[in-house]
Amino acid sequence: MLYALIGILVGIIAGWFLPFTIPVEYTRYTAVVILAIVDALVGAVRAQLTKDHYDQLLFLTGLFFNILLAIVITLFGDVL
Length: 80
Hints:
By secondary structure, the chain is mostly helical. 79% of the residues lie in helices and 0% in strands.
């Protein structure tokens, strides 16, 4: 838990001071990727809190699959 809090703090500090902007064309994709990440994190926290079986490999593959699926669905919506 300590590593997670340190990572969040480092990410906030880096995001605050680094001059990085996302082009307007990619804002829709960024939003769905953030939602996919939050979905995977909420699932991991639920598994940890309810003492279900938490598997790091399952979490990582689910995270990347959620991100890929969110991007593909958003791209499909743009094409339509």
